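Late entry, written up from scratch paper. The run itself happened at the end of the previous shift, but nothing got recorded in the book at the time, so transcribing now.
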Amino acid sequence: MHQKHNHYVPKVYLKRWSFQRKGKKLIYSLNLKNKLIRSQPTNEVCKKKNLYTIPSSYGLDENKISEKFLYKIWEDRWQVVLAKTLDKGLIPRNEELGDIMAFIIVQSMRSLKFKNDSQALINKIASDELKNIDFTLSYAYLAIQGYTDLINNCTIELYKANLGKRFITTDNPATHWIVEGKLYTNIKSLIRNMDVLANPNYKIICPITPYWLGILTPNLGIPVTVSQRNTCNVFELSLEEINIFNTLLENTSHEMIFAKSLNDFIK
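Output as recorded:
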């Protein structure tokens, strides 16, 4: 099998938290297992060999369903939209919001932690003959399964970091939640929780840059108007609220968290 490294958190996303040193793009990382803080090249983190590779035994053209098709288009649009809007202090509107939501939805289903959690649940509930089967193909399709419904009925709220405090990000940046008031319940896998997609309290939370965080509400089963999809509410957060979101992000990471500055690791 051809060996290929797949970035399950794209470099174009991580570069928002990066800095330049001697011509290299680096990012501050904190390994939650050994508590080691390092500065690492962005192309050396959040990758795994053949994560999205389709086994040759499937007899399929991998280039048509690998991340070249599933992910690259949204990474490209993500860069363009942020450069035109948030980077210039402008709020995205219309199709720009759709591109941001599409990137976050796909990212929420492509991380190594999401795959591992889903695989563990499959192994737990599957019959003996299905346990430990390579579900790479199913995982690849998961990124676009129901995608049209999700994006067409999705809204987003933007939250701005203030007071000199920024958002961290992680190796599992876009995560699924049920949010009821101030109670946040993380959903590790959608495999046995598909009913949450119609829950109005179902959210997908993802830091967009060190200064902006997005909360998506897919709203499946609840009609959403074009106006609701094409506009968003913007909120400024207090220091305490930023710390709460950073704690949620850290608690749902796989192994690593990342920050724009070393001070951002301090709560």
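The chain has one domain: 5-265.
(Scratch paper discarded after transcription.)
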